[in-house]
Amino acid sequence: MLSVRRLAAALFATLAIAPAAQAWGPLGHSVVAELAQRHLSPAAKAEVEHLLALDHTTSLADIASWPDEIRNDPKQQDLWKQTRELHYIDFNGSDCIYTPPRDCKDGQCVVEAIPHYIAILGDRSQPDAARLQALKFVVHFIGDIHQPLHANYQQDAGANKYQVQFQGQGTNLHRVWDSGLLSTRNLDWKAYANMLDAEGEVALPPSIAPYDNAAAQWAEESCQITRSIYPAGHKIDQAYINAELPVADTRLREAGRRLAEVLNLTLQNG
């Protein structure tokens, strides 16, 4: 039987070479989860529903924001402290090339968190409660890593320190990308997912490095996007929205497709 670490490595090696066949707020995370759930294999769908039944739901969208929500749950403060650094990666070089000792000390970043929780999810010897918790983190962190500012190199706390004007109010660029851009469509998560799903299967970017950890590529993609999303004059105007909202939509679609692939691979065997 594969060890937890070897299982994760095997799964991510497969994803890395597969053909083109807080991050987002609740809206974005629900959209990613819904897109993925619509494209699960029968085996993965059955196992996801088995685990979700522990939380009395059948929808991945219902649990997609849980890793953020525990921040405000007094009973989950230890878990929040253990996992709060796993939602993002701060690249320590403008090259946007993932270097683990430099960019993810002691494995405390989203790039390493994803395969860690995938391995727990895929380990049928683990209690269902542990696997459900792992499912929640996998769904959430794959969403997180596709939000460009969760993989930034500017050393400004993922643009939380970069102030902008948006819709007549002061905010920060991170918050705009978490939820502000998406909210301009005035759609709820199911309608948003319907709109994106109607566009068909998104073509995934080509491999940019020979990684056996696909999350490293996903983080590098996000990091590269951040090079062009800081607005001139610190103002988010309609021209900015017109240019960047399609980028955000594409990242949601890519996250949804990749999440479905991860779950299909991880949960393919009963």
Automatic annotation (TrEMBL):
Arranged from A to Z, the UniProt key words for this protein are: Disulfide bond, Endonuclease, Glycoprotein, Hydrolase, Metal-binding, Nuclease, Signal
> So which residues are the signal peptide here?
1-23
Q: What is this protein called?
A: S1/P1 nuclease
Q: Does the keyword ATP-binding apply?
A: no
> Which stretches are transmembrane?
none
For the keyword Glycoprotein, the answer is yes
Q: Which domain of life is it from?
A: Bacteria
Q: Name one Pfam family in it.
A: S1-P1_nuclease
